[in-house]
Amino acid sequence: MTPAWHIREGQTADLDRLCELEQASFSYDQIGRRSFRHLLLSPTARVFVVEQPGTAPALLAYAIVLTRKNSRYWRLYSMATSSAARGQGIGKHLLNHILETAQHSVDGSAGGMRLEVKCSNTAGLGLYRQLGFEITDILPAYYSDDSDGYRMQLTFA
């Protein structure tokens, strides 16, 4: 059975819902409204949103991916899933969509994906490892709350 989720590119009309999900998801290093607007309009950023269709579609998750002309790796900059939608496989569904999009990018430039994750984020670490990401670096006091992070990478075959 196909999940009742719809993934699409984010738009400036999503700003309020993106900011609400960001504030509910993170108590540190939050992306502000101005930054979300910049990312939505940037040619080197892709904002993906997951909605549950309906009359007032619920924003279930988002992910931001950054690309650079001088890098073959896309960077997963941020990803959040609403608390009500966690544990349903939405994050995995979204990340698989992004990985497939990167692998089939129009210019064929994507050689893989990189990301940073808090060492204490066991759910995120589990998901990334399940999808083939490997830890490449330990990042001491990487986050604004001085917690450590990991840099992870997935190289496309």
> Which whole number gives the mean pLDDT?
91
Structural class label? alpha+beta
Relative strand content: 25-35%
Low-confidence stretches: none
InterPro entries: Acyl_CoA_acyltransferase, GNAT_dom
GO molecular function: acyltransferase activity, transferring groups other than amino-acyl groups
Organism: Aliidiomarina maris
Pfam family, one: Acetyltransf_1
What is the fold's blueprint, element by element?
Elements: E1 6-9, H1 15-25, H2 33-41, E2 45-52, E3 58-66, E4 73-81, H3 90-103, E5 112-118, H4 122-130, E6 134-139, E7 149-155
Parallel strand pairs: 4-5
Antiparallel strand pairs: 1-2, 2-3, 3-4, 5-7, 6-7
Summarize the structure.
The chain is of the alpha+beta class and 157 residues long. The protein has helices spanning 15-25, 33-41, 90-103, 122-130, and strands at 6-9, 45-52, 58-66, 73-81, 112-118, 134-139, 149-155.
